[in-house]
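2024-03-11 09:14:02 DEBUG pipeline.ingest accepted 1 chain
2024-03-11 09:14:02 DEBUG pipeline.ingest length=392
2024-03-11 09:14:03 DEBUG pipeline.predict start
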Amino acid sequence: MSEESENYYDGLPVGRLGIIPLESCTALGKKVNDYLVSWRRERGHKSTAILHEYQRDSFIIPSKVPRFGTGEAKGILGESVRGDDIYILVDICNYNMTYKLFGQESHMSPDDHFQDLKRIIAAVGGKARRINVIMPFLYESRQHKRSGRESLDCAIALQELVDMGVDNIITFDAHDPRVQNAIPLHGFETVQPAYQFIKNILRHGSDLQIDSDHLMVISPDEGGMKRAIYMANNLGVDMGMFYKRRDYSTIVDGRNPIVAHEFLGADVSGKDMIIIDDMISSGDSMIEVATLLKKRGARNLYLCSTFGLFTNGLEKFDCAYEQGLFTKVLTTNLVYQTPELLSKPWYVTCDLSKYIALLIDTLNHDSSISALLDPVERIQKVLNKFKNHEKI
């Protein structure tokens, strides 16, 4: 059964479907919309869901956030959303967008994107039947706990959204999912792209052998153990972990510097490695882990990260690739990707638009998304295809 047919439901939708991709998420929003339009058109007469405009040429509701010369702004919707089931998509990491501030060009920061999100919610004005926010990179998710006299930005942001009338918040690979405790009576889902990573690794690793003698999954730090264990268990292989030894007597750029990465796990010699983490920021940790594994005799290294931020540029990855430290870097299209990144021979993009469309279609029919959040069956299906030398 295809993913589209799995997503066919007989029940009535919550309301007329409306998607509002903010300018930061235009490309991803268009792909999501195309899937939804196609699926609902194919269902045709088979659908017993009788609702005005269940099928439309586009579910995208036009919106814009114009700015004044002072940098202030307002949210505007291009059509009525009364009674709609609204899904707002925002990429808070899209630094490629700019605006004029007193005549000077300023790049959009995560704070700017979050404010624009609130402006669009305010423009909805409580008229929608339900508001859902899809924010792949959770705003301020790295500031998720308090150490000393610090602000709890992520928790405050979540509370702000639900206070404005947001019913569900969907994010991907939250830095710490326990932040949902800030809004215990509202919907909060953190989605893992493990299936997409496995599928794309299998596409680019034709000589992979999926067993404990030839493959390992590595967590680059103790905080990412859970996602590494999940992937290792699905693949049926061993897991290893690095932990960061820090110098707690020194603070550099607001945090304690890493002195060394220590490895815990079985022998890696001659084995392929899948290193999985939630984000590549500067890339220093990921490359250091790859270097240490290569020194221990590892074969092919696949570096997987939900969010490829590359805040310090791509040069260090170019150098590491030329030195043979890794085989491929895989990240998703959930955050802005530069044309330069997409052109790199070592880079593989994992498209999550179909997955997001499935989540939206399922939620719009008020159905459970449990099967989508835990894609064990789909992972096993693609593994069987790989083992049987079928096209993935």
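2024-03-11 09:14:41 DEBUG pipeline.report The two ends are 15 Å apart (CA to CA).
2024-03-11 09:14:41 DEBUG pipeline.predict end
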